[in-house]
Structure formats: structure tokens, C-alpha cells
Design brief:
The structure holds two protein chains of two kinds. Chain A has seven helices and ten strands. By secondary structure, chain A is α/β, with parallel strands linked by helices. A six-stranded mixed beta sheet of chain A has the order 6-7-8-3-9-10, sandwiched between helices. Chain A has a four-stranded antiparallel beta sheet with strand order 2-1-4-5, with helices on one face. In chain A, strand 7, helix 6 and strand 8 form a beta-alpha-beta unit. The N and C termini of chain A lie far apart (39 Å). By secondary structure, chain B is α+β, with helices and mostly antiparallel strands. Helices cover 54% and strands 17% of the residues of chain B. Chain B has 15 helices and twelve strands. In chain B, the strands form two sheets. Chain B has a six-stranded mixed barrel. A two-stranded antiparallel ribbon of chain B has the order 11-12. In chain B, a hairpin with a 4-residue loop joins strand 2 and strand 3. The longest helix of chain B has 39 residues. Chain B starts with a helix and ends with a helix. In chain B, 43% of the residues are buried. Classes of the chains: A alpha/beta, B alpha+beta. At the A-B interface, helix 2 and helix 3 of A face helix 1, helix 11 and helix 15 of B.
Amino acid sequence: MQAVMCRAVCRTFHQGESLVTGLDHVDLDIAPGEFVCLSGPSGSGKTTLLNAIGALDTPDSGEISVGGQRLDQMSKTQLAQLRLHRIGFVFQAYNLVPVLTARENVEFVMQVQGVPNAERRKVVDEVLAAVGLAGLEDRRPTQLSGGQQQRVAVARAIASKPDLVLADEPTANLDSQSAAQLMALFEELNSERGVTFVIATHDTRVMGYARRVVRLLDGRIVADEAQEPHRMAVE
Amino acid sequence: MSGALSVTARLAWRNLWRNHRRTLVMLLAISIGVWAMIFMSALMRGMTDQMVRNGLHTLPGELQIHNPAYRDDPSVANDMAWPSGALLDALDGPPVVAWAARVRVPAMISSERDSRGVTLLGVDPASERALGSAPTDEEITAGRFLQGPDDDGIVLGAALARKLDTGLGKRVVIMSQDPDNNVADRGMRVVGLFHSRLEGTEERYAWTGREPLQKLLGIGTQVSEIGATAHDYRHTDRWAPSIAAAAGSSLAVETWGELDPYLGSMLRVMDGFSLVFMAVIFTILSFGLVNTLAMAVFERVREIGLMQALGMQPGSIVALVLLESMYLLLLGLVTGNAVAWLSIRPLQSGIDLTAVAEGMEMMGVGTTLYPALSWIDMLFSTAVVVVLGLLASLLPAWRAARLDPVRAINQT
């Protein structure tokens, strides 16, 4: 069973009077444990595809399955449940709830899932240590740097042990050192925990970490290539 | 508490204090609104209580028993027997706390100077005072009140005495009709003068002992009416049926609302007015509440989108906004109720309304208004605020839950 399967996925948007093509008959299979980058210039459809896979947006036509579950056959409540239990999200910015501390942000998804308190605390301690934020648990987002905030978002995305992590331009607001640290973390989680990563980016350094790069242009997949990872240096 | 509810409650509380100035302003508005609702209700209740009690004072009693023909023809011919058997048992047991049987006839009273028509009451003073209808010692401005059912003195209102140009210790002549329509008259000595909040009461009623009046009219131990009270005029309908059952079909049992429909309708008007007042205050408040919540949602569109993207159900988003509203309302209610209690307590000894006394007397209210703080009003205003507040919060909550997560997250 594929982690993600897309068949003839189409999505258009109204922009004023005109109709813009976001996705144009996209076919894509992603196996469990893969580390895939969706690349392409702005407006190529990376984020649109990521949102569709993450059940945040509904395609006009075509089929998407996540973990064997057809998204078009699920209700809004079921889609929310799927996002809650099986998908971890890391967005480009505004990833954290400002009134919650780092610990509470990481706990958030597990708390909504109903994970018992003791188990939550244990997992949160582990993942915050894993992303290098031990000791910063009680800080609020405004008391953390951009890189630290993204790490908290990653910790939240992996804390509930999802099958799939979707990251949209996760390094866009980070300096090169923070970006390298974050990507190293993604790679480690992928190789050690077997989490499937799908990352939308146009940063070539980020693409270097992927074993597969899917290139999009004008909503279509124009290349789908396997590659040897070539990481950026971490200072 | 379930995990989702726990995190929702925590988020709602912290969100409330993100813009603490706005929250405090809204809190102040709710507190003032709640205070105004309770304060106004206390004034209205105090006024209504006084109006109804004054009415019951002259009826008197919350319930009366008569010969069925008495209401249409209140002559001595339509009298009734002294209560006995089941009726006496019912009148002597709870919830009745006092009752009095009296002779009540229209009469002409004449002094050396003038004559007036009055309602002559032949009473047992102890029973009447327990019922709350007879003048109190404080209301006796000269002389004394009656000392027993056999007292053959007469107590007049001060205004009536002035109009008759008579006074304490002087004799007046009472003239009425016996059951055979013969004139019955006798002289009586004025033993006391009373003052009433309502001048009409002073002019209209004259009091004497029950037994001398029964003897004058030749009616043995018969009486005109029985008045009873449970000291709870708002719930007379609850206990009147048991008295009616005990009285049987040969007697008419009527509540004060039936005896004085105007007084009953005034009570309903006052209660309705309180409700309208509460609704008006809360409608004004609800605009502020909706605005506050709408702003709070508007400012947090991206955050709400993020939570939805992470798998929070729309129902939880609705609960989040409603909880914020609930916290705000509860804080406002606690403060408003506390301030209302603190501000009404010192006024319960009476507010002097001498400046508008004439107008108040026309409504059957005295010159001093006694605000009546009632836990029912406090509970009712609390319920109004909570229910209407949550209803007003539904729109912003619903809008928050319907946000599209993709658009919300990308909103700048």
C-alpha cells in the first residue's frame, strides 16, 4: 500500500476573472518511508499538491489516497481525524499557537487525540530533546528564534507518530545554519523512525537531502527523479 | 476533563487575556449591565411588593372567603357562618400563617358637624394584625387601636376625622342596615386615629370590635368575610385550591388577583417591564460582546486555520469561541452580582422618594421605596446573560469553525 497515491488530480482557482490551473492531471505514488521533495518555481503547484495530499484542500477532480484511504470518500470530520492521527504538518510560517508554550504546542495534537497526560509528557520530553530544544519547553513562541520555532513545529509534527509528514517551505524563514540543522533532523527522523516526508521547496540545498525529487511546472509533473542525497554543511 | 476539552479550555482562557485592555472594557460593560439589571429588578420588585402589599392591606389578605352573593351585593344579608370543620382545619394549618373573620358593611358615620359614607369593619384586632390589615401601633397617631373583639370604641382615619371635624374621645353615630333592611344605628366613642400611607384608606375605613357590630346588626356570630395569608402573595394560586376544597361549594374562595384584577395585572406589567428592561440592556451588551468575539476571531484567523489543519474538529473551534465568551460572561456576572449585592444592601432600609411622593401614591406606593434584592432576580439575570450571551457568540463561533484552513493559514 502506498503512503500517498494521486491519480489525475486537477485543481483550478479563480483569480479575478481568469481561471488559474493549480494542478493538471497529476499522478504520483509515494511509498512508505520515502523522503520526497516537490520542487518547482513559484506557482508551479507544489503547495497546492501538498495541501491536497494533506486533506486541507479538495481537488476539482481525480483521486488521492493517503495510507490507502480515499480522501474524496471521507467527510469533513473524517478528514480532520485523518490529519489529526496520520499526518504531521510543518508550515512555512505561523506554525505555532502563540499563547501556548513550546511544550504545550508539541502536546497540542496529542491532547486533541486524547493521549493520557503521563504518556504525553514522556513523548514531549523525548521529541523536544530530539530536536535540540531541551530546556526551552516553557518558552512561548515569541521567546524562541525562527529556527527554534520551526523545531517546535517539527517536534509537534512527529510527536504523535504520524505516517506522513508534509512540510511546506520549512526553511524559507531560516538562516542557512538553522535550515541545515532542520533538514538533518528530517533526514534522521526519516531514516531512524521510517516517517514518510514530503517537502515542498524551491531551495536546492533542501532538495539535496531528498532521495527523490518531483519537479512541477504549471501544475504538471515534469520530472520525477531518484537521486543520491547531498547534504548542505552544518556549522 | 477530556484532552480536547482541556486544551480548548486552556486556549480560551489565555486567548481572553491576549488583548487584556479590550477584555477589561468588555468585562466592565457586562458587569455594569448585570448590576443595572439586578438593581433595576430590585427597585421594581420593591415597588411592586409595596404596591401589592398596600393593596392586600386594604383588601385584606391574599385570599378571601365569602358568601357567593357577597361580591355582587356586599350587604349584611349576604353573610356567612363562622368557619368550622374542614375549613377551620385548613385555615389553622400551613401554608396559612394568619387568618381573620370580620364583619364588613357599608355605613354612614356622622359627627356633630358632618356625615360621610365609610366601610365599617368589625374585627378581632389580634387576628387582623396577624393578617397585616389593621393599623400598626406606629400608624396610630392618637389614642389606641381596638383591644379585643368586644371593644365598642371606634378607630378612624386621621383624614376622615378632619373631614368630620371630630377627634379623639368624641362620639360619632354609626348608621347601617340589618339583614331585614332596617336601619341599625348606635353611638360610638372615637378611641383612636390612624395614619395610612394612602390618604384614601384613612377616609374610607373605620374600625370597631366584631362583637358590638354583630350585635348592632343582629347577625349573631355570622361574618361577612374571611381573609387569609401565607405571606407569599406571588404563589397564592398554589394553596388557594386546598382552601376552596375545604370551604366547599357553598362558599366562594377568591385570590387577591381575582378580587383586584387591576392589582394582579399591575404585578404582571411590572414583571414584564423588568423582563423588557433586561432584554434591552442585554441587547446593547450583546453588540459589544459580538464585536469583541468577532475581533478576536478576525485577529486569529491564521491560528484557527492552523488548529484546523492539525486536526481540530470544527465543533472544538466553536467550543473554543463559546468558552471565551463564557469566561467573559461568568467573570462579568460574578462582578456584576457582587456589586449589585453591595450597592442594594445599604439601600434596603429605604430610599426617600418624598420629592415624587404624590406620583408614587397614585401607583399605590408610599414615599419610601424599599429595594427588594431577590436571589430569583439574580438567578434570572444570570440566566438571561448566559443564554443570550452564548446565543450572541454563536455567530462568531460559527464563522470561525467555517474558516477554510488553507486560506486562513495563508492570510496576511
